[in-house]
Design brief:
Layout lengths: L11 E6 H11 L7 E6 L8 H13 L7 E6 L1 H13 L5 E6 L2 H7 L4 E6 L2 E8 L4 E4 L9 H18 L1 H9 L1 H5 L3 H21 L14 H10 L6 H18 L5 H13 L12 H8 L5 E2 L2 E9 L2 E8 L1 H7 L5
Parallel strand pairs: 1-2, 1-3, 3-4, 4-7
Antiparallel strand pairs: 5-6, 8-9, 9-10
This protein binds nicotinamide-adenine-dinucleotide and zinc ion (ZN).
The site of zinc ion has 5 residues, from helix 10.
């Protein structure tokens, strides 16, 4: 699994989701050097915090992790974002490897070098770009992943297909049942193609000054929903809802055909990703929160809308009223 990852006499600190460590740490041990320290954090999005990062820094200090040592993050997207952020900031940045154990991390989060923690004001507001030395994906880990988490990962895959690859979108339609039933061949194909798409986009624009922004399709609204719902819904579930709202908005603008919007909704529905947004969430609150999202430039809300499959378009003049009008489509 970590074959070929020679720690070269370096110490290794594993920053692991506690639940994942309990389930799978023994699978890593054959590949670890003798000098190894395990630092765990409680599972869940709430661990993407400065408080949790601080506690991990104390662990690194106690273990005397130095510049030339290494971090391994072990878990889903939260482990990668949090552990990557800690690795990026410890001693001004030390090397790290991501071992992805959730489908969402395998198809998206582990690739690309974005790390972050959340603030009470919003999600991922503090972070840095810090590329891992390697990303390790082993589908054996997924055997213990709860179905809801698995489906959440599929949302990011649909997003990649929608913005970049119409054929891959059609493949999802053809293999929807196999995916939901977690067919091994379908999962392997899915992970491979997603890593190709993400790596290709990131290779063209590592720091998100251009094309990388298309990966944020569904995310400006999705992040606002996650935050307003206090992280009760999964990240992928909110991304699916975010895509639906953004497609509704695009259709109302005449940018996206109703037929294409319906096709995407139908696929998300078959993949078990059509959550309903509670009516307690005020559309105006979603619109307001989009104003503190990182993807805001000069006060205007930027959304990555689509004209059709494989045709993303950055739109920078979205008004709060348009967002408010589109929200009821998911309530
Ligand atoms: N950096 C990026 O480019 C990027 C991209 C997409 C998403 N993200 C971030 O990723 C996070 C979501 O990732 P996630 O959905 O993996 O969340 P997560 O890391 O919280 O994992 C979801 C749940 O699954 C459990 N889990 C993980 N692997 C398991 C396994 N093999 N067996 C049993 N349980 C397992 C975890 O304990 C957790 O309860 C969000 O914070 C999101 O913002 C980052
Ligand atoms: Zn995402």
């Amino acid at each position: 699994m970590l074959n070929g990852c020679d720690s070269g006499g370096r110490k290794v600190a594993i920053i692991a989701d506690r639940h994942v460590a309990d389930l799978h740490l023994q699978k890593l041990t054959p590949w670890l050097p003798p000098e190894c320290v395990l630092l765990t954090f409680p599972p869940g999005e709430k661990s993407k915090s400065h408080a949790q990062a601080l506690s991990l820094y104390h662990g690194l200090a106690t273990a005397q992790i130095e510049r030339g040592d290494m971090v391994i993050t072990f878990g889903g997207g939260v482990a990668g974002d949090l552990g990557g952020f800690v690795a990026a900031t410890w001693l001004r940045g030390i090397a790290y490897i991501q071992v992805a154990t959730s489908l969402l991390a395998a198809v998206d989060a582990a690739v690309g070098g974005k790390t972050a923690v959340n603030l009470p004001e919003g999600k991922n507001l503090v972070g840095v770009f810090h590329q891992p030395q390697a990303v390790v994906i082993d589908t054996d880990f997924l055997e213990t992943l709860p179905q809801r988490e698995f489906l959440s990962g599929l949302a990011e895959s649909v997003k990649h297909a929608v913005i970049r690859d119409p054929d891959f979108f059609a493949w999802h339609e053809q293999h929807a049942a196999a995916l939901v039933n977690r067919d091994g061949d379908a999962i392997s194909t899915l992970i491979e193609r997603n890593c190709e798409i993400k790596a290709d986009v990131v290779a063209h624009d590592e720091r998100e000054t251009g094309v990388r922004v298309i990966l944020n399709h569904g995310h400006t609204i999705g992040h606002a929903l996650e935050h307003l719902l206090k992280y009760e819904l999964r990240h992928g579930e909110c991304v699916a809802l975010g895509m639906l709202v953004e497609n509704e908005l695009a259709s109302r603008r005449g940018l996206l055909s109703r037929a294409d919007a319906d096709r995407i909704r139908a696929l998300l529905s078959r993949l078990g990703l059509l959550q309903r947004l509670p009516h307690s969430v005020e559309p105006q609150a979603v619109a307001s929160l989009c104003g503190v999202d990182k993807k805001v430039v000069g006060g205007a809300v930027n959304l990555v809308l689509i004209r059709g499959l494989g045709q993303p378009e950055r739109v920078s003049d979205v008004t709060p009223a348009e967002i408010v009008q589109a929200i009821p489509s998911i309530q």
